[in-house]
Specification:
The chain has 438 residues and is mainly alpha-helical. It has 22 helices and five strands. The protein is 54% helix and 6% strand. Strands 2-3-4-1-5 form a five-stranded parallel sheet, sandwiched between helices. The protein is elongated and about 100 Å long.
């Protein structure tokens, strides 16, 4: 073979493109093929109705990674005959946006509409987000933004008012199984897994279809003699870490779930949400701070030991560190979940703080102010004060409210736990006051 022939063969091999990843090869060709999002793409869904009408509104696609946001945007352009422009807020700047807008205006002059897909749109700052507004309003572009973050927190109100927010769901087991079936059809062979391992593979994806297909591609690429069981599968593949950003919505969703499970006295659910946060890498001291707050807000004097338990757990964690100290957090979590509940102290604080703001600088009644000087005594400071310990019950029933205020009731103990005893004491003292008035 001549040298020229060898060069030609080298050029032929060099020009051959590498095979596309499995996830790209299985990308749906129509909206009907998109899995797990029928609530949007079906005939009764928002996207299905817009496509049927042939008219798209600007929209924000909000959902976890690997749920089909980019795919849906591409298919929307295909289904409505629009130009498709694709940029990422991670890699694009003002110059890129100007170029896209100029091209969209030129296309509009020729009667061609443009769908601009902006991946990770929440990464654009407020000023950049405002830059979309005139082009959305005059119809130069139909904006389809994609975000994994809560649009309420990350996107301008002005932009949100001009776009529909459509929520894509985390892919469930049925949708993920459909993706594996398609992968096996594309490869013309079954995955080398026993049934339990297949279930474990789907669970490991944590609702992310792209991750699942990448894992499947790895399994197809490895020589495996016997079908793998769950243990062998775990040894071969790395489990996907849960989606959790400590300063984003996932963080607030899980702490809310923990707080409400504790308030609802469900120790099993509370432990689950606690584990979800700590396993995902949440700072244990943050969780402890929220638990300390819960002890006062939702339990209070119904069980005064709740606050003591939380502070003791904090000290134990400081002393032991992870993972040993996490057991103290678990103990405090269980204590809070199983303790009697009362928000009486929380309500009392709100009421008293409001009254303090509303009443300004009212003077205490003269009987309970100090009289450190002769002049003040002459003016009546401290006159008529009844020293409670001098009474038979250790209770004088004196007046402690400003003369301009009628006595208020901010704290109303519930009939649960230790507060039931407090309620008895308050009722007893109120009876003594009534008797004194009579």
């Amino acid at each position: 073979m001549s040298f020229v022939s060898l060069l030609a063969m080298a050029d032929l091999f060099a020009a051959a493109p590498p095979p596309a990843p499995l996830a790209d090869r299985l990308r749906p060709a129509t909206l009907e093929e998109v899995v797990g999002q029928a609530h949007l793409t079906g005939s009764d869904g928002a996207i299905g109705r817009m496509v049927a009408a042939g008219k798209l509104a600007s929209m924000i696609l909000w959902g976890p990674p690997g749920t089909g946001k980019t795919t849906v945007a591409r298919l929307l352009a295909d289904a409505t005959g629009m130009r498709f422009e694709n940029i990422s807020a991670v890699f694009s700047g003002v110059a890129d946006l100007k170029r896209v807008f100029a091209a969209a205006r030129d296309a509009a002059k020729l009667g061609q509409r443009t769908l601009l897909f902006v991946d990770e749109i929440h990464r654009f700052n407020r000023a950049q987000q405002d830059g979309f507004l005139p082009y959305v309003e005059d119809g130069t572009i139909t904006l389809v933004g994609a975000t994994t973050e809560n649009p309420s927190f990350e996107l301008n109100a002005a932009l949100l008012s001009r776009a529909q927010v459509l929520v894509l769901h985390r892919l469930d087991a049925e949708a993920l199984e459909e993706l594996l079936t398609r992968a096996e059809a594309a490869e013309n062979r079954a995955l080398p897994l026993i049934a339990d391992a297949r279930t474990a593979l789907i669970a490991s994806a944590d609702g992310d279809g792209r991750f699942l297909l990448n894992q499947a591609e790895t399994l197809f690429s490895v020589e495996i003699g016997e079908p793998l069981d769950p243990e062998a599968l775990a040894a071969l593949l790395h489990r996907r870490m849960p989606v959790y950003d400590k300063d984003r919505e996932g963080h607030y969703n899980l702490i809310s779930a923990l707080h409400k499970s504790l308030r609802g006295s469900d120790p099993q659910a509370a432990l689950y949400w606690l584990a979800r946060m700590l396993v995902a890498g949440e700072e244990p001291l943050y969780v402890l701070r929220r638990m300390v707050r819960f002890a006062s807000e939702d339990i209070g004097l119904a069980d005064p030991q709740a606050l003591v338990q939380c502070l003791a757990a904090k000290d134990a964690y400081d002393f032991l560190g992870s993972p040993e100290g996490e057991l103290a957090i678990v103990q405090a979590c269980l204590y809070l979940a199983t303790a009697p509940k009362s928000n009486a102290a929380y309500g009392a604080q709100k009421g008293a703080w409001k009254a303090a703001r509303d009443t300004g600088s009212l003077m205490p009644p003269m009987n309970i102010v100090n009289a450190p000087t002769k002049l003040m005594k002459t003016l009546g400071y401290g006159k008529g004060y009844a020293y409670d310990h001098d009474s038979a019950e250790g209770f004088s029933g004196d007046n402690y409210w400003p003369d301009e205020m009628t006595p208020q009731r901010y704290y109303a103990p519930v009939d649960r736990g230790f507060e039931a005893k407090i309620a008895e004491r308050l009722a007893y003292w109120e009876g003594l006051r009534d008797a004194k008035r009579d």
